[in-house]
């Protein structure tokens, strides 16, 4: 990110997908601190999800992240694909569930 857009888009969505788990976090760019995080490794979700690494798990993580964003009163999040990443599968499920829950994506 350039220096100007770093301050225009203070909250950035970061996602990580492994073969076992899905995790996402929202980072405050100016201070480089994690504001909110959600993962399929959390104890409450392990019993709820039959598989912790599929598209359904990614959608559930998106819903949980949206609820936590609303509690912190963060209305919008910046989202950019890294080089070589495609908008499909788990990524699409997570971002779409955030969007459906009322979080604006910049």
From TrEMBL:
Gene3D superfamilies: 3.30.420.100. It comes from the Eukaryota. The keyword NADP does not apply. One of its GO terms (cellular component) is ribonucleoprotein complex. GO terms for biological process: translation. Keywords: Ribonucleoprotein, Ribosomal protein. One of its GO terms (molecular function) is 5S rRNA binding. InterPro entries: Ribosomal_L18, Ribosomal_uL18_bac/plant/anim. Coiled coil: none annotated. Belongs to the universal ribosomal protein uL18 family. This is Ribosomal protein L18.
